[in-house]
Task: structure prediction
Amino acid sequence: MLAKAPTPGLVKTRLVPPYTFQQAADLAEAALCDTLAAVLAAPACRRVLALDGAPGAWVPPGFDVVPQRSGGLDARIAAALGSASGPALLVGMDTPQLTPRLLDVGSAGADAWFGPAADGGFWALGLRHPDPGLLDRLLLGVPMSQAGTGEALLARLATAGMSVATLPRLRDVDTGADAAAVAAQAPGTRFARTVIRLRANGTPR
Result:
């Protein structure tokens, strides 16, 4: 899992406005906790949190916490996946609606797994053989956080001759509208409860 510590002013800044920086950090922590719980409940031999920032009490037992590599998001994803010694699936912290079932991809007979995001990016990327050299060729230079990010990555996978299993499309939480939509979709999550609490305190609906 690739994540950023929920520090006000440094995380989920596209939620501001309508939220304040502190409220955006509260939502980021809630999304982070929901995602960590889903990863913890999913079948895996090892669970790693590649973290930008200092770990807090929100990190549950069962995770190896490692610092993220410096550089752009493409390099950080490549490094996180490349540290695995076997099949690996990487997710971020932007999809608190994630469930353990969505992460159970072990039976999919493919070279790679790709989870498309509604904004044109991706919420998951997995490789059966995450060789660091291959990861650099697949990821370095892919424009991140753009509408064409997913298509560019899929093109790299196709060029490498890899078979790809496509996972369900999910919506990332980037904006206030995203937060409302994802909270409505996953009402039982800590993220949804945080959205409701902030609404009760007068934050935009």
About this structure: The chain has one domain: 2-200. The radius of gyration is 16 Å.
